[in-house]
Specification:
This protein has 146 residues and is an alpha/beta fold. Helices cover 35% and strands 18% of the residues. The structure holds ligand CA2.
Length: 146
């Protein structure tokens, strides 16, 4: 079984730590990446960490994860808008954990709906960068693929 886990990040997450620290905290995306690499090493995962502001590029990243051990996906605002991302997650057949830094259910109503949640293995939100760590641990806890 592959030990590769893709950690994929959507639009504006490159701005983490530079704006809106009240909602998203002080950690930068580089800090989140370092956290994922440390946890990935502890779990025996090879981490591929990527960010894009483009919906189509995120579809490509998901397709490129075919055959991987898992995906940890923070699709950011596309979570709430994108049928294309949902179709990509459903098509690629890789266990995917949807993660969010913030507790989307404690925020605006438009953030309460996710196009992704019905096709992912599980959802973790509200724990800041630890949401990603918990996502990696969730993947590690899954039984091996047949
Ligand atoms: O809580 C999360 O992780 C979100 O996926 C973040 C998205 C938001 O649209 C989702 O509803 C919840 C927004 C990411 C934008 O990140 C920024 C970081 C710093 C400054 C501005 C935006």
């Amino acid at each position: 079984m592959s030990d590769t886990v893709h950690v994929l990040n959507g639009p504006n997450l490159n701005l983490l730590g530079t704006r809106e620290p009240g909602i998203y905290g002080a950690a930068t995306l580089a800090d989140v990446e370092a956290l994922c690499r440390a946890e990935g090493a502890a779990l025996g995962f090879e981490i591929h960490f990527r960010q894009t502001n483009s919906e189509g590029a995120l579809v490509d990243f998901i397709q490129e994860a075919r055959g991987a051990r898992g995906i940890v996906l923070n699709a950011a605002a596309y979570t709430h808008t994108s049928v294309a991302l949902r179709d990509a997650v459903a098509a690629v057949g890789v266990p995917t954990i949807e993660v969010h830094l913030s507790n989307v259910f404690a925020r605006e109503a438009f953030r309460h709906h996710s196009f992704l949640s019905p096709v992912v293995r599980g959802v973790i939100c509200g724990f800041g960068p630890q949401s990603y760590v918990l996502g990696l641990r969730a993947l590690a806890s899954l039984p091996p693929a047949p």
